[in-house]
Design brief:
377 residues, 15 strands, binds zinc ion, alpha+beta, eight-stranded mixed sheet
């Protein structure tokens, strides 16, 4: 298994150092771009540096707490190979790690292991909570099985764990505006320009998120939440090859770092999708409209039309371009639509960040229990 804590690594697809924690090609800190960065001489990239110790301290507690609760992998060594190991006197299932032999009782009784997804779709949401004042915002990531529609993992950037200062979100009053333009090609271009205007590519300013005075826990930088989110998915689903994501550059970075082994062997695909869906029931074929190039990296995007529906699709790591026709963010759209119909959710804005997070996690279970409406097998 790759080191789940490596974060100061090259994140360039095609570079021999992709995901490697150390390399003779690295030098740091490098301030050429105005922030402390790692310089990878092999590909010329400057990924922003993280405080590795603080990231490790937070992530290890985060992984352990998740595993202790869910039982999907070992809370000590993160090994996924476990066996049922008898029951407690109360009748709850105990689990033993095959690797380090640790025995524990997950708080949630382990369900039948779900069918492994072939592709994961991930989108961010901004949801309100009551903090120091009303209308504070949580940054939420939800990942679904793109084919079956069930939720695989949901994270918010609220954490109840001890957190170093460098991992905390700091709002400076300059919220990135939602990109608005009637033309989808222009929107993709403006979004790329937005990434460049950030103090560094992974430093999103999405709005105010101040906890109640003396509130327990912390609000993390969304990029940290993304790294934690995808590392849990990586431990659970190490062989995933296809990732479909909203147009957000640090989601790309977190995915390519978590599954770096596959990407180094050219075994993975990451697709950006931008959609404009006015008729979600349309079932006529999509028609290819041409390609355009956008952003710092001059990524190639394909434009597709289906009646009044539009989408733009970008293969970030090569991948079979003929697949673009089939790709969408439909499973997350379905979930978000469902979420807004749940009273537990629509009444959650006056609650604390921790409480909103709990409600979202419990709604995730409700959704998966009723998702048979989508799950075909
Ligand atoms: Zn590199
Ligand atoms: Zn173990």
């Amino acid at each position: 298994m790759t080191n789940p804590f490596a974060i100061n690594v090259c994140k360039t697809f095609g570079c021999r150092n992709l995901g490697l924690a150390s390399s003779a090609d690295y030098s740091w800190p490098d301030y050429k771009l105005g922030y402390p960065a790692l310089h990878c001489q092999a590909c010329g990239s400057y990924p922003p540096l993280f405080d590795e110790q603080q990231f490790r301290d937070w992530l290890s507690v985060h992984l352990t707490a998740y595993a202790a609760e869910k039982g999907h992998f070992c809370p000590s060594c993160y090994c996924k190979e476990t066996i049922f190991y008898g029951h407690n006197p109360q009748g709850t299932q105990r689990i033993q790690c095959r690797s380090c032999k640790k025995v524990w009782t997950p708080k949630q009784q382990p369900a039948r292991e779900i069918t492994h997804p072939r592709s994961i779709e991930t989108v961010p949401l901004l949801l309100p909570f009551q903090g120091a004042s009303a209308g504070q915002k949580l940054y939420v990531l939800v990942s679904l099985d793109a084919a079956r529609g069930n939720i695989l993992h949901l994270s918010t950037n609220y954490t109840q764990h001890q957190t170093g200062d460098s991992l905390r979100y700091c709002y400076r009053g300059n919220t990135e505006p939602t990109v608005q333009h009637s033309d989808i090609v222009q929107r993709v271009d403006m979004r790329e320009a937005q990434f460049l205007r950030r103090s560094q590519f992974d430093e999103i300013q999405y709005g105010s998120a101040v906890l109640k005075r003396n509130g327990k826990g912390a609000i993390l930088r969304p990029v940290i939440t993304a790294h934690g989110h995808f590392r849990i998915l990586k431990i659970r689903f190490p062989d995933i090859k296809t990732h479909i994501i909203s147009h957000e550059c640090f989601l790309r970075g977190a995915i390519i770092t978590a599954w770096a082994d596959q990407f180094r062997q050219q075994q993975g695909e990451i697709w950006f999708i931008e959609e404009e869906i006015s008729d979600s029931n349309a079932d006529t074929p999509w028609h290819f409209q041409g390609t355009t190039y956008h952003g710092w990296w001059k990524n190639q995007w394909q434009r597709w039309e289906q009646g009044k529906n539009r989408k733009m699709v970008c293969a970030l790591t090569g991948g079979n371009n003929s697949k673009a026709k089939m790709l969408s963010l439909a499973t997350s759209r379905h979930f978000i639509h469902w979420l807004h119909q749940q009273t537990k959710f629509t009444h959650s804005a006056p609650l604390s960040a921790g409480r909103v997070t709990q409600i979202l996690l419990s709604l995730t279970q409700d959704y998966n229990n009723c998702a048979s409406l989508l799950i075909s097998d």
